[in-house]
Amino acid sequence: MKHSNAFSQRLFLVLCLAALLAACGGSPSPEVETTNPASTAEPQDATNTAAPNVPSAEDATAAPTPSPTPTAEPVLLPPTPSPSPASRCQGLSGTLEVQVLVGPAEAVGLEPVAVGDVPFSVISQEAPYWVEGQAPIVYEAVLEEQWGRYTVTMDLEMAVSGECMGEAGGELLDLVLEMSGEQLVVVESEGFNGEYPWAGTHALDLSYPLEEGATAEGEGWVVVLHLGAIP
Length: 231
Prior knowledge:
Distance between the termini: 171 Å
Radius of gyration: 66 Å
Structural class: alpha+beta
Strand content: 35-45%
Order of helices and strands: HHHEHEEEEEEE
Number of helices: 4
Strand order of the largest sheet: 6-5-4-3-2-1-8-7
């Protein structure tokens, strides 16, 4: 009987000790060291961390995408001007009929006028239209009387120069006619023989519309325009 009581007492002490340990949280559990596989892994080569971006054959042969073409603004062109009428000066030609008073011949009743024609033409193909021309005038008149002979001769070189100008339909000839030469009067009678020479140059300023028969005149001279070919 005594043995049974002793066992019961021991059991009671064991249970009390267990209950006391449970109330105090029990013995601490040993810490378990966890290992991070990533931290222990050896570092990889940096060159192998990313795959190179190598274009495929399809990408290499693909045509580039064209950029959009900007739309050009419409350009308004000015109206085409109508061609101007051709100038009648181009290719113009004609003659100047020159009449010069011969004073010594008029004084004795001889033919008083020396007449000659001076041809001219436009020598340029475009404006300004330059005009040139030349020709001689030869005059001779003789008076026979009982008292003797009276002779008048004159040799003149005529030269014309100038310009044909103006708008189509209103062209003008602006010319200079230069006369240079000599004149000789010879008087012959019984016991007398006299010569009276003269030489000189004279210039005339002439202006004409392009009209057949247009005339310019002054003291001792008349110059009439005769037109040849007019385009």
